[in-house]
Design goal:
single chain, 459 residues, nine-stranded mixed beta sheet, 11 helices, 21 strands
């Protein structure tokens, strides 16, 4: 095949050059020249099309004249995966999943492919051999009868196999290993990643076949390659977690078919990833003896309410400047809450080292956790234990007032399901409560001081 004509284009000002330049002579920016395709004889995506059909050019249509036939989503046996995708795998969608090396991206997608019965699946790998995939599949569970493995990195060859196989689902592991004959640069370069992604996107939209792409990440944690890669795909998933811990978190950062705040939690075992259907149980640690500095709060991740445990340690500092350390919690919000406690409550925390930790290794940003954080800090400072059957759900304002939070009914229902006897909320949530509690007592207050005085009376 004849090589396509390419040119190097500055991504800042659009200046073109016949070769790569370190500094743009027009705008003065550094490292902005990227090789781009100018002219091609035949596009690789044309290989998969049926030669007997003639594709007409699109013409403008009135919105009411456009017909739409809703196709059912492909359901996996993994409910966590379905939830994060927005209810299942959408036909013709392009999904990008990224994460740290060794976090379990390939394991997750292979496990999903093995669990699907009926659809024909093509697993394209450029990083592992067929034998390695077979060994992992044997460890994960029963071998699917409709799963095909292809070790290929050239997109032209991949499209030729798609014509013969006609799969219902395609998994590419990974996009950084693919290359197109249309671009002369090597695999993993900016131009190659963009060109390969465009070819796969065109195939997915015109054939209706969903495609999953595994993407590498940079040392900063963002997905490697051009930002246009994330703009092209329909859904971007981030697989997070510490490789030294058994829990993994699957987050949605972009989703054209559902919420972008959904969360899936998995447990890494010897035989693969186990979906955790009730994550509140693993986020609440069991302890034999009561301890100060521990409070339970409610958060929302997408449509799912969770109860998590906050642990605090407040102790006299040994340094000139007190330490403020937060794990899994916004450090700036912690400083704000400490200022509120000191200004509105008179607690002298300026000479105290403060350490706050969210158990379970997750990171939260729901303001409804403010009251639980305050009670955890006060519990450690006063060395008083909060009853483990009490939980909190309220935002704390700068004046010390308790502010209403959204979807309070779901938070109360989750707390009652897990056996909590009492939940403290803002009195401004009273009008929005429609939930009929049976075993949990709903307590209301206007300030965090009222909550503290009421709980301290019992200790």
């Amino acid at each position: 095949m004849a090589k396509a004509k390419t040119s190097f284009i500055c991504q800042s000002c659009g200046q073109s050059a016949p070769k790569w330049l370190g500094k743009c002579p027009a705008c003065g920016e550094w490292n902005t020249f990227v090789e781009e395709l100018l002219e091609t004889t035949i596009h690789p995506a044309e290989v998969w099309k049926n030669k007997s059909t003639h594709r007409t050019a699109p013409v403008p249509k009135l919105l009411q004249e456009i017909s739409f036939e809703s196709s059912p989503k492909l359901q996996c046996s993994d409910e966590e995966f379905n939830r994060v995708l927005g209810g299942g795998i959408v036909p013709g969608s392009l999904v990008l999943i990224g994460g740290e090396p060794g976090i379990g991206k390939s394991t997750l997608l292979l496990q999903v492919a093995l669990s699907l019965q009926g659809p024909r699946i093509l697993y394209v790998t450029g990083e592992e051999s067929e034998q390695q995939i077979k060994l992992r599949a044997d460890r994960l569970g029963p071998i699917s009868q409709d799963l095909y493995i292809l070790t290929e990195t050239n997109t032209q060859q991949i499209f030729k196999h798609l014509v013969d196989l006609e799969p219902d689902l395609i998994i590419i592991d990974s996009i950084q290993t693919l290359y197109s004959d249309q671009i002369e640069s090597g695999p993993g370069s900016v131009s190659q990643i963009r060109e390969c992604a465009l070819e796969l996107m065109r195939f997915a939209k015109e054939s209706g076949t969903p495609i999953f792409l595994v993407g590498h990440i940079t040392k900063e944690g963002s997905i490697a390659g051009p930002k246009v890669l994330e703009h092209l795909v329909d859904t971007v998933l981030q697989f997070e977690g510490d490789r030294n811990m058994i829990y993994r978190i699957l987050r949605t950062t972009k989703n054209r078919f559902g919420s972008t705040s959904e969360l899936g939690i998995y447990e890494m075992l010897g035989n693969g990833l186990r979906p955790v259907s009730n994550p509140s149980e693993i986020l609440l640690s069991s302890r034999d003896e009561p301890a100060s500095g521990i409070a339970i709060g409610t958060i929302l991740e997408g449509n799912r309410p969770l109860l998590i445990e906050i642990q605090s340690l407040v102790t006299q500092t040994s340094y000139a400047t007190a330490q403020r350390t937060a794990t899994g919690y916004d450090a700036k919000r912690l400083n704000m809450l400490l200022a509120v406690l000191e200004k509105r409550g008179g607690f002298r925390l300026g000479t105290q080292d403060v350490f706050l930790n969210i158990t379970g290794g997750i990171r939260v940003d729901d303001p409804a956790l403010d009251l639980a954080a305050c009670m955890s800090l006060l519990s450690s400072h006063e060395d008083k234990v909060i009853d483990s059957s009490i939980c909190f759900a309220s935002e704390v304002g700068l004046g010390g007032e308790l502010r209403a939070v959204t979807r309070i009914d779901q938070r109360i229902a989750e707390a009652e399901k897990l056996g909590f006897k009492e939940i403290w909320i803002s009195k401004y949530n009273q009008k929005s409560i429609n939930y009929k509690a049976k075993t949990i007592k709903i307590q209301m207050a206007s300030t965090w001081m009222e909550v503290m005085m009421n709980i301290w009376k019992r200790t």
